[in-house]
Amino acid sequence: MKVLVVGANGQIGKHLVSLVQDNDSLEAKAMIRKQEQASFFENLGAETVMADLEGEVETIAKAAEGVDAIVFTAGSGPHTGSDKTLMVDLDGAVKTIEAAKVAGVKRFIMISSFDTRREAIQAAPSSFAPYVVAKHYADDWLRRTNLDYTIIHPGALTNDKGTGEVNAAEEVERGQVPREDVASVIVASLENDSTIGKEFQVVAGTKPVNEAIKSL
To answer: Residue limits of the NAD(P)-binding domain (predicted)?
Structure first.
C-alpha cells in the first residue's frame, strides 16, 4: 500500500514516514512544501512530492496520483494565528479530502484534535477555540463523504519516545501521548480495515498498539 503523508515534514509526519518505510507492506510518498525538506525523506528511501495546502485542489490531487491511501497529519502549529488555522487545519484538510475524490483514493486517515464535538468548542479557551472549530468542521466534512475514512483523536502530544502502548477507544480519559506512538497508531489503522468508518481517541496506555487498534 502506497501512502501519501500530508504534512510529512511535521513531527508526526516524520515519525510516520520512518515507520512506513520500515514496514514491508507499506510505502510512503511524502508531501512537502519546500525542496530543502526533501533530503530527510530521500534518506529514508521515500518518494517526495511538492504541494502546498494553500494551493489548488488539483495540485494536491496530482500529488496523490498513484497512492492507495492519504494520511492528513498537517497542522498550522501553535505559533500561528487564526488565519493559518483556517487556511491549513480547515481549508487545507477539506481540499485534501476533495483531492482524494479527484485522484480516486478511497482510504483516508485524519489526525484530528482530542475532542472536536460542539461541547468542546464551547469549553475551549479563546486562544484554542479556532483550532477546535477548524477540526470540528474538517472532521464533519470527511464523515459526509463516501471515503473509507478513519478519524484519530490524539491526546496532548509530547516528544517523549514512544512506548508502543496506548489506550484507544471511542472515548478515553484525557491524557498525553507521544507523537511516535500516534504514528504507530496510524500504521496499525492502515493495516486494519476494521478501523474504516470509525473514529477514536488515543492516549498513552498499557495495551500494545496493534492490540488496541484491533479491539476497537
So the answer is: 7-192
How many Cβ atoms from other residues are within 10 Å of residue 158's Cβ? 15
Q: What is the CA radius of gyration of the chain?
A: 16
Round to whole Å and give the CA distance between 194 and 73: 21
Sign (positive/negative) of CA torsion 87, 96, 102, 199? negative
Which domains, and CATH codes, for the chain?
2-214 (3.40.50.720)
> Which one from 41, 114, 131, 200 is the annotated catalytic residue?
131
Q: With the CA atoms of 19, 32, 149 and 142 taken in that order, what torsion angle do they form, in degrees rounded to the nearest 10?
A: 150
Is 131 one of the catalytic residues? yes
- Residue 2 forms beta bridges with which residues? 27
Q: What is the pLDDT of residues 158-188, one digit of tens each?
A: 999 999 999 999 999 999 999 999 999 999 9
Q: Is the pTM of this model over 0.85?
A: yes
